[in-house]
Write a structure and sequence with these properties.
The complex is a heterotrimer of chains A (758), B (88) and C (156).
Chain A (H helix, E strand, L loop, with lengths): L3 E4 L16 H5 L15 E7 L5 E7 L1 H5 L3 E6 L10 H4 L3 H11 L4 E2 L5 E7 L2 H8 L3 E6 L6 H5 L11 E4 L2 E6 L2 E9 L2 H7 L2 E9 L2 E2 L7 E6 L5 E5 L4 H12 L6 E5 L15 H11 L3 E4 L2 H7 L2 E2 L2 E9 L5 E13 L6 H8 L8 E9 L13 H19 L3 H8 L18 H10 L1 H4 L6 E10 L6 E7 L5 E5 L7 H13 L6 E5 L16 H28 L6 E4 L2 E4 L6 E3 H6 L8 E7 L7 E11 L6 E11 L6 H20 L30 E6 L21 H13 L10 H7 L7
Parallel strand pairs in A: 1-31, 2-16, 8-10, 14-15, 19-20, 23-24, 30-31
Antiparallel strand pairs in A: 2-6, 3-5, 3-7, 4-6, 8-9, 10-20, 11-18, 12-17, 13-14, 13-16, 18-19, 21-29, 22-23, 22-28, 25-26, 26-27, 29-30
Helix pairs in contact in A: 11-12, 12-20, 13-14, 16-17, 19-20
Chain B lengths: L1 E4 L13 E4 L4 H11 L3 H5 E2 L2 E2 L3 E5 L2 E2 L13 E6 L6
Parallel strand pairs in B: 1-7
Antiparallel strand pairs in B: 1-2, 3-4, 5-6, 5-7
Chain C lengths: L4 E7 L2 E7 L5 H8 L18 E4 L2 E4 L12 E3 L12 H8 L9 H14 L5 H7 L11 H10 L4
Parallel strand pairs in C: 1-5
Antiparallel strand pairs in C: 1-2, 3-4, 3-5
Helix pairs in contact in C: 2-5
Classes of the chains: A alpha+beta (758), B alpha+beta (88), C alpha+beta (156).
The structure holds FE2/S2 (inorganic) cluster (2 copies).
One FE2/S2 (inorganic) cluster binds next to loops of chain C.
Chain lengths: 758, 88, 156
């Protein structure tokens, strides 16, 4: 019964097929070079000393004993970073931003989370560096800490930053606060909307701090050459982002830094922040040797960005027929130690699946004594979807309306104006809901003791900058050069779009991901943008190649370019059938017609290709233990056009499973002061193969008008629905509503069994 | 005339007006005209002559990639929306 | 510096000698001493399976084995899975089934799956899920990995 379906609207030759990925053989034979596989002669190992306290003032640091330890080559603290010798006057408006960025990398005056870097050591090997760490003496004055997002918002809460003031869309408050930002959007008339409702429900929801959980720990190798050039080999989602961060913190011009992105072992948003690069760079400068660092798993949990815990209040008014009349939400997310949670994305995404006339959303970004949060797949949106989709399920139960019918009645479509004001273009939510309704899974009978839930999710999918260069070899094979790091098959999907555009075989395109010196600026691989935006860059570079090939053919045939067409890999004279050349034939003649052909393109696509997903989850809940098992799961998603359906399915399945973990198991446990208690894979429990069924998929294809082949990003929408789908299924199985994630056996047992189906 | 949607939080400055029409050919002109009508509003949208980092301008639903220089069409809709970008 | 020991072991069919410190794990020896970086580190505490190798026919987390324990053992790593004739059927199946996204877990999954099918050539889905529970993959949701192993298993 398990299956993967693709509901295609349009077929192409290469786009939509499932070839083996170009980097595949290297990755199944262990030859692919990941960051930690970098090994330059004479490389020193670095270890970072981290704060044991979630909140403390640093009184003094004495590194002298560690420096004297045999095998240690250098020790650095925040004093060794440029910020220490810059003045407020020099920096002006950039002062606070640079202080936050530098302090996050290495604390100067205060530590703000357990795991906050305080010093770093480079030594002949990791064991020596580790031993020397105990010799660094740090004197702390421990301060009261604040861990819970709502506690941190209260007046009188312990303050992380004495000078942080709430920014209310450009207006700054008078008194310091842990609330860094408040933002609000509204549409229509909220009071009137709620007055018109037959039923108004309002509930509160919370979610726990969770981690992206990529298997490869953060790592980097730095070599600061004596000619002043800094080289970095690192595991990152964005080599240009690393370059920008390091340039900012080390006050170096970007052109003095070359970042080589190594193969990356997962990121999900967590490998955008550059945690180790500047540290290793400074150690390299001090020692004159290459310096490498790799985080331990505990460091990854305690000091790289988790996704924020959240508190959300949602209120929805509906007519008896299910039509929504008004919606309102307030969402607060913890940013961790420094401002910048994704709460604004959360409020924009919260109701984006629905056609809402009257609505208001408010978001609060709050600092607490936890590691600074980082992006995690559709940042902000999964928490918001959990809250909104749970309340909708509750309303459906109250009104006895089928949850898919309810959503179809209220679904956003082309032309729907969202609360923040933007109008949806052609989107595929309705098609996804219909596919869910018609799916065998949704029609199947529920087994005794099990429950079923559905939920939907949304992610905007914006574009941003990408650059691509391609050269035509004499044998007709095209070398495709790009700056987008390949985390999950984008070499394949960009090569496919190139081959499709040129009318050549997939095997005749050879993609390579290159360093920051070798290609134009390319934004991160993330935000579900790469197949879309780098795809557009590749298509337009391929168009550039086509034009040049036409002009070569014009030279060869001594005719005008206007007389020539390039169709399906053939270059032919429009009126003389005799004059035809295949791509390969013409490639062979490039040397004698003006030299090699190079196509190039840098793009910054501005349109959104909104992504929607609908998930159906069946669960069984053990009455004795309270343990929830997912017994069947179907993920449905609008991919616009799935370039490589297998990797689209992989994104859908991977997102669903991360969401299942978020729903049922995953959670940072903190003690009262904010010390994480479960910083290992043993105690932070992510789903294993044993915890899961097959994840069925349906790829819905509603072409994105903003892409030549209709492609939409797929990585993020996939993680928005699963928590609510699972929570709604648990309610269906136990009769109790779970409004706090994760839904642990303890919470289920505590809630008891209301109307167990048996 | 382009239609400008005033962000909810700035409607205090426009005495509750939610949208208005004005003549402008790029974002800079939009902001300057708004500021002539509602002094102080520019400061809330712009910092160091750029749209504030937390915001993005959207012209007819497309996020403006040239900031203050982005062209505004004759019948365009202009929105100031949360920036969903830097970072994932 | 701690004293070093000479270790003799059979690695991917070849008898080799290497020097290691008593505190070095087999994972460290493979990667740092022998330069065989195909075996990956995800946690260094036995909870992710990225470092899985086969030792005397059994799968082990090489981060939990000391280098000196390799003495006299027969060890297979990812570098020893393909032959000059071609990829191992599991490697081929992982490619065809798109059973990897980022690929960092892949060497570990391949060795663990080989360890299973070498012993139980007809393992079914339940058995495969059970056996692979010591290997974490954060990208795929396991669906395509399980399918790839099933395709090679005689059970189908
Ligand atoms: S690195 Fe050995 S089990 Fe994770
Ligand atoms: S493919 Fe990335 S962890 Fe498995």
């Amino acid at each position: 019964m398990t299956s993967n379906q693709v509901l295609s609207e349009v077929e192409y030759n290469v786009v939509g097929t499932r070839p083996v990925r170009p980097d595949g053989v290297d990755k199944v034979t262990g030859r692919a070079r990941y960051g930690d596989d970098t090994n330059l002669t004479g490389t020193l190992q670095a270890k970072v000393l981290r704060s044991p306290h979630p909140h403390a003032r640093v009184k003094s640091i004495d590194t002298s004993k560690a420096e004297a330890f045999p095998g240690v080559r250098a020790v650095i603290t925040a004093k060794d970073l440029p910020f220490a010798s810059l003045s407020k006057e020099e920096l002006g408006g950039d002062y606070t931003a640079l202080k936050f960025a530098t302090d996050h990398m290495m604390a100067s005056d205060k530590v703000l989370f357990k795991g906050h870097p305080i010093a770093a050591i480079a030594a002949v090997n990791g064991h020596v560096a580790q031993s020397a760490m105990d010799l660094i003496e740090v004197e702390y004055e421990v301060l009261e800490s604040v861990v819970d997002v709502r506690e941190a918002m209260k007046p009188g809460a312990a303050l992380l930053h004495e000078d942080l003031r709430t920014n209310d869309m450009g207006e700054t408050a008078d008194t310091p606060s842990n609330i860094s930002t408040h933002m609000s959007y509204a549409t229509g008339d909220l009071e009137k909307g709620f007055a018109e409702a037959d039923l108004v429900m309002e509930k509160e929801y919370t979610t726990a701090t969770v981690h992206q959980g990529y298997i490869e720990p953060h790592n980097t190798t730095a070599f600061w050459n004596s000619d002043g050039q800094l080289n970095l080999w690192t595991s990152t989602q964005g080599s240009f982002q690393v370059r920008a961060t390091v340039s900012n913190i080390l006050r170096l011009p970007v052109s003095q830094i070359k970042v080589t992105p190594m193969e990356i072992g997962g990121g999900f948003g967590g490998k955008i922040t550059a945690y180790l690069d500047a540290i290793c760079a400074v150690l390299s400068k001090k020692t004159g040797s290459p310096v490498k660092a790799i985080m331990t798993r505990t460091e990854v949990f305690e000091a790289s960005g988790p996704a924020p815990a959240s508190w959300m209040r949602v209120k929805i008014g509906v007519k008896n027929n299910g039509k929504i009349t008004a919606v309102e939400t307030e969402m607060a997310m913890d940013a961790g130690a420094y401002p910048g949670s994704p709460v604004m994305q959360a409020i924009v995404c919260a109701f984006a699946c629905y056609d809402v006339e009257n609505g208001k959303v408010d978001g609060y970004d709050v600092v607490v004594n936890k590691p600074k949060s980082a992006a995690y797949r559709a940042p902000g949106a999964p928490q918001a979807a959990f809250a909104v989709e749970s309340l909708i399920d509750e309303i459906c139960g109250e009104l006895k309306i089928d949850p898919i019918d309810f959503r179809l009645l209220n679904a956003a479509k082309e032309g729907t104006r969202r609360i923040e004001g933007l109008v949806a273009k052609r989107i595929g939510l309705v098609e996804c809901l219909e596919a869910a309704r018609d799916h065998d899974h949704y029609k199947s009978k529920l087994e005794n003791g099990t429950g079923r839930g559905v939920a939907c999710g949304y992610w905007p999918n914006r574009g941003f900058q990408s650059s691509v260069v391609m050269t035509v070899n004499y044998d007709g094979v095209v070398s495709l050069i790009m700056g987008s790091v390949d985390i999950g098959g984008t070499r394949a999907s960009i090569a496919q779009q190139t081959a499709e555009t040129l009318g050549i075989a997939y095997e005749d395109v050879k993609p390579t991901v290159v360093d920051t010196d070798s290609i134009g600026y390319t934004f991160i691989t993330g935000g579900s943008r790469t197949a879309f935006a780098t795809g557009i860059a590749a298509i337009s570079a391929a168009e550039d190649v086509k034009e040049q090939m036409i002009s070569r053919a014009a030279k060869i045939w001594d005719t005008s370019e206007d007389d020539i067409e390039f169709v399906a890999g053939m270059i032919s004279h429009k009126s003389d059938e005799e004059l035809r050349l295949s791509f390969k034939d013409l490639a062979r003649q490039t040397a004698t017609t003006g030299g090699s052909i190079t196509g190039r393109s840098s793009v910054d696509p501005s349109g959104e290709g909104n992504g929607h997903a609908v998930h159906i989850a069946d669960v069984s809940v053990d009455q004795e233990t309270g343990k929830t098992d997912v017994t069947r799961f179907t993920a449905i998603q609008d991919a616009g056009k799935a370039v490589h359906p297998s990797y689209v399915e992989g994104q859908m399945q991977g997102g669903a499973v991360q969401g299942i973990g978020w729903a049922l198991n995953e959670e940072y446990f903190f003690d009262d002061t904010g010390k994480m208690l479960n910083s290992s894979f043993l105690d932070y429990r992510m789903p294993t193969s044993l915890d899961l069924p097959m994840i069925d998929t349906v790829i819905v294809e509603v072409a994105n008008p903003g892409h030549p082949y209709g492609v939409r990003g797929v990585g993020e929408a996939a993680i928005c629905p699963p928590m609510a789908a699972v929570a709604n299924a648990v309610t269906s199985a136990t009769g109790n509503r779970m409004r706090s994630l994760p839904i642990t056996p303890g919470k289920i047992l505590e809630a008891g069994w209301d109307s167990v189906k048996s | 005339m382009a239609t400008i949607f005033i962000p909810t939080m700035l409607q205090k400055l426009t005495s509750g007006i939610k949208k208005l029409e004005l003549d402008a050919s790029n974002v800079r002109q939009v902001v300057d005209r708004l500021d002539e009508m509602y002094p102080g509003i520019k400061d809330r949208l712009v910092e160091d002559d750029e749209i504030r980092e937390s915001l993005a301008v959207a012209i007819d639903g497309d996020v403006a990639i040239m900031g203050m220089l982005t062209k505004v069409g004759e019948n365009s809709e202009v929105h100031f929306v949360p920036a969903i970008g830097g970072g994932f | 510096m701690a004293g070093v020991t000479q270790v003799q072991t059979t690695l991917n069919g070849e008898v080799i000698n290497f020097l290691c410190e008593p505190r070095q794990s087999l994972l460290e020896c493979l990667r740092d001493v022998l330069g065989m970086t195909g075996t990956k580190e995800g946690c260094n505490d036995g909870n992710c399976g990225a470092c899985t190798v086969i030792m005397d026919g059994r799968i082990v987390d090489s981060c939990l084995v000391l280098g000196v324990e390799a003495e006299g053992k027969d060890i297979t790593t990812i570098e020893g899975m393909a032959t000059p004739e071609g990829l191992h059927p599991l490697q081929q199946s992982f490619l065809e089934n798109a059973a990897l996204q980022c690929g960092i877990c892949t060497p570990g999954f391949l060795l663990a799956s080989k360890g299973l099918l070498d012993q139980e050539p007809d393992a079914d889905e339940g058995r495969i899920r059970h056996w692979l529970a010591g290997n974490l993959c954060r990208c795929t949701g396991y669906d395509k990995i399980v399918r790839a192993v099933l395709q090679v298993s005689k059970a189908k």
